[in-house]
Amino acid sequence: MTFWEIQTRKYLSLVEKQDEIVKHLQLEKKQAEELIYSVGSPGTEGKVQTSASADQTLKQIIDLEKKREELAAACNAYMDFRIKVTEQIHQLPNETQRRVLYEHYMKFESLHEIAKKLHFDYSYVASLRRKGITEFFRLHKKTIETIMKDHK
């Protein structure tokens, strides 16, 4: 595998990495919300927890707001990049290569799953991906080089 093939695969894999970041931030936000809403919530048999001071509760609310802002920014960046890569994939001239790259890098499906779905042999799907990667790099070399320089 050549250097540019590796760089192109890494570039396309950034979509999945951003997806993972968004999911992680969603989980952190949910945990922060649960922490805030659990203080004095129903189900404590009429008792209100008094261990959390007003300052601590305020800090938790501020932390939650920061998580919400961080999540919103990550979601926006993710969606912008996802749209950009989708448009780049759809510029490939070969429809089958487009489909394989889209299914693999945008829907996060394995080559085995794609082969089964398309009723192709696994080795043929792997070949389509390789050829699609080559063509993708040819079409978007400058973008890949710029983005990957920032992601070292």
Structure description:
This protein has helices at 3-38, 54-89, 95-105, 111-118, 122-150. It is mainly α and 152 residues long. The protein is built from five helices and no strands. The mean pLDDT is 89.
Number of strand elements: 0
- Main sheet summary: none
Question: What order do the helices and strands follow?
Answer: HHHHH
Low-confidence stretches: none
What percentage of the residues does DSSP assign to strands (E)?
under 5%
Shape: elongated
Estimated radius of gyration: 22 Å
Q: How much is the average pLDDT?
A: 89
**Terminus-to-terminus distance:** 19 Å
Helix share bin: over 70%
Query: By helix and strand content, what is the structural category?
Result: mainly alpha
Write the layout of secondary structure elements.
Layout: H1 3-38, H2 54-89, H3 95-105, H4 111-118, H5 122-150
Helix pairs in contact: 1-2, 1-5, 3-5, 4-5
Tags for this model:
single chain; 152 residues; mainly alpha; 79% helix
